[in-house]
Structure formats: structure tokens, C-alpha cells
Amino acid sequence: MFKKITNACVKLVQRFLPDPFIFCIILTIITFVAAMPLTGQGPLAMVSHWGNGVWVLLAFSMQMALVLVLGSAMANSPPMKRLLKTLASIPKTAGQAIVLTTVISLLACWLNWGFGLIVGAILAKEISKTGLKVDYPLIIAAAYSGFLIWHGGFSGSIPLGIATSPAAGQAVANTGGVLTEAVSTNQTIFAWWNLLICAGLFIFLPIVNVAMHPKGDDIKLIDPALLQEETETLKTPETPAEKIENSVILQWVTIILAAVYLIRRFTTPNFSLDLNIVNLIFLTLGMIFYGRPILYVRAIAKAAKEAGPILLQFPFYAGIQGLMVGATAAAAGGTGLSLAAVISNAFVSISTQVTFPLFTFLSAGIVNFFIPSGGGQWAVQGPIMMPAGQTLGVDPALAAMSIAWGDAWTNMIQPFWALPALGVAGLGARNIMGYCLMALLVSGIIICAGFILAGVVIYG
Q1: Helix, strand, coil: what percent of the chain each, to 5?
Q2: What's the domain range around 263?
Q3: How far is Cα 100 from Cα 82, in angstroms, rounded to an integer?
Q4: Of the candidates 192, 258, 294, 328, which lies 20 to 30 Å from 436 by C-alpha distance?
Q5: Contact partners, residue 434, CB within 8 Å, separation at least 6
């Protein structure tokens, strides 16, 4: 029965899912049309909201692009490649291969989502190179499924954003003054209920991915020869310029500078991780792993190509965000509510203190279809859900992480963030999204159970 449902999902997605950029344009049209009757606004008002929103995520786009590029460069470094090849030689069956890929992807995405997105896909490719009879689209989908955990880990933009001091953190300011002080990562990332959800994904997601593996002639294999990559040959530096480009001394001066800064930050009282610190950590590790400045330059240039489709789509999703948050006052003919507010308020209206985290998670999952960006999601829902949670007496950390997990959850059927992994694998979104739909359903049960338990234990 499970395989029949999986096969139906795969066929459905392969037939109807368009290219991610086309999907983005379709979402723009849907949001534009839906917002008018629900918010009482006219088409010209919606055009203004869209245009005003297109460029509002530039700073965050740069942070996210760096997370991806720096994580990708590190995943492709020689030490990491050697480690992944060693890991790829461990599995002896398709089931073992899928379990290993899923677990490594989950762990890597928990540490850094950009690193995890790439390292999982590279491991899947390395396993496929061994000639093991494993379904190629499924093992790539298993690698991408680890992305479910990212907002519960070290590079989650919402928990890291609210861990920033109120004076410096825009994310804190975006909650309408509800968060008057920073929320420690001990209250979010390392809270018992968050760790429980993460543990549930580590246990059940590999089982689900293995259960979806086709049998017999339905297995889609790939010729290992097609996955071989050109190895870069290093020539001996001859000119003064080439010697400077390959200077180990210059590389280590920069590494030491960054390391000293990081040590000072980590030893500062009340230190909290944020996206900038996470990026600096991976920048420093990347420079260590490549050894020479010019090698790291080339790695970053290669990794930057994987960020191209994301950079193209970010302005459009920022425009969708503008449509989602745009509102017109009642005096001017509108309802005074945005489309995001209409969706969020519908869930708030049926919430209690116990069920608020669950319904916030579900509403965030819906909004994430239209705004697949953690920072954008927070900017849209934070000012609505956080005051509502405060009114009900819900812990701000629990309310914020409910938004965060909703943002991560529906990425399984939102092809935007799959683009880097698909670029590494040489596949299209249609090849893996059917499997990801099943991962969405099972993970949704796990996450919902986690928030129901948290609500009952804390407020029941």
C-alpha cells in the first residue's frame, strides 16, 4: 500500500510540477488574485505591494546566498570529498545507502543548511558511483529530505535572529515590540521539545525513505560514468603573481584573524549564534580545508553558480511577500488586513494555549508555499503570531519555533530550495518531489506530535 501511494505521488508530480521559476510565477498570480477579495484591495494596490516588496530582502538574500555558497565550497573541499568517498563505500545494500544518506544529510543540515544541502547530494552521487543498485532519484530525494531539520538547528534564521540583541536584531523588532529582549538558543534550538522533534526525524525519516525504494525494473539507475567529474590539475606557481595567489602564509594570516575574532565572540558573556557568525565559521573552515587562497577562490566561484537560480527567484518571492503583507486601511476601501494576517488570524481564532503551537506550525506551512525564506516568513508572521501568543500566554520561544518548523516543513514540496541539490545531481524537481511529498506527510505527523506534546506538557 505504501509503495502504491508513493508511486501515485511520483507520477502526479512528474506530470504536473513545472520548473521552479515557473512555479514561482504561478504562486505570484495566485497570491495576487486571492489577496484582492480577502483583503478588499484593488489590482493597483496589489501591484504597488508587489513592486514595493521585490527588493526588501536584499540583505537577507546575501546572507542566505553566502550560507549556500560557503557551505557548498566546504562540502566540495578535498578533505570533505575524501570523507564522503569513504562513507560511500560503507553501504552494501540500497537500504543501507538510503539510511546513510538521510542521516548524514539530517546531521549536516542541522549544523548548517547550505552545507547540508550540498553534502547530502554529493554523498548520494558518490554512492551511485560505486555501482550499487540504488534508485538514483530516490537517493537524491533522501539527501534533500534532510533539509527538513534546518530550522531546528544551528543555521535556523528564526532562532538565530531572535537570539540577536534587540538593539541590533531586525528580527526582534519585526515582532511589533513583543520581544523586548533576545531569546537564547537554549530556549529554542536546545529546548527539549525541539530536540525531541529532531530525534523523531532522525529515527523515522530514514525508515520512510527506505520503504519508498522501488523494486525490480522500476529502479531508476544511473551510469556511474556519467557522474565522473574532471579533476583539477595544479601547476607549479611560476610568476610572482601566481606565487602570491598560492601563498599559504596569506591564507593562514586570514584564518588566524578570523579564528581570534570567533574565539573572542564565543567567550563573550551571553554569546548567541547568528547567521553572520555561522557564515564566518564556515568561511574559516573552508579556507583551512583548501589551504591556498586561489584554490578557495575557484571553489567559491564554482559554488556561486549553484546559487544562480535562487538569486533569480528571491526578488519574485520578495514580491510575493509584499503581496502577502500588503494591506489597505478600511478608510481607503480595504479591510486593513493583509492576506498573511487573514490566514494567520484564521488559525489564531481557533487556538488555545495548548493548541497554539500546533496551529501556528500549520499556518506557517501554508505561508511557506508563498514565502520560502525563513527571514521573510518571520517578517510576515512574527508580527501577527507573536502578539497573539503573548495574549494566550504562550512562551515566545515556542511560538517562534512553531513558525520556524512550519517554514521548514513544506520545503519538501516547495522546489525552491531543492535547486542546489538538483544542480549537483543533474536532475529536475519533477524527479524527486513525488518522494518528497511522502516525506512531507510523515514528517508532518512527527512535528505535529511534538508541538501537541509541548503544549500539553507545558500548559495542559
Answers
A1: 75, 0, 25
A2: 2-227+238-459
A3: 16
A4: 192
A5: 6, 9, 10, 11, 12, 13, 14
- Rounded to an integer, the average pLDDT of 296-315 is 85
In a domain, 164, yes or no: yes
- 176: region left, alpha or beta (phi > 0 left; psi from -120 to 50 alpha): left
pLDDT score of 230 more than 70: no
Three-class SS state of 155 = coil
CA distance 186 to 183: 8
Does 368 reside within a domain? yes
C-alpha cell at 393: 500566554
- Identify the pLDDT of residue 156: 87
How far CA 412 is from CA of 135, 145, 433, 447, in Å, comes to 19, 7, 7, 14
Count how many domains the chain has.
1
Position 242 scores a pLDDT of 82
First-to-last alpha carbon distance for the chain, in angstroms, is 37
pLDDT at 176 over 70: no
Q: C-alpha dihedral over 85, 89, 93, 97, to 10 degrees?
A: -30
pLDDT of residue 279: 83
Contact 72, 306 (CB under 8 A): yes
pTM score, two decimals?
0.83
Report the alpha-carbon distance of residue 405 to residue 397 in Å, rounded. Answer: 12
Distance, in Å, from the CA atom of 25 to the CA atom of 19, rounded to the nearest integer, reads 10
- Per the domain annotation, does 15 fall within a domain? yes
Residue 272 grid cell: 548567541
DSSP letters of 59-128? HHHHHHHHHHHHHHHHHTSHHHHHHHHHHHTS--SHHHHHHHHHHHHHHHHHH-HHHHHHHHHHHHHHHH
Specify if 232 maps to a domain: no
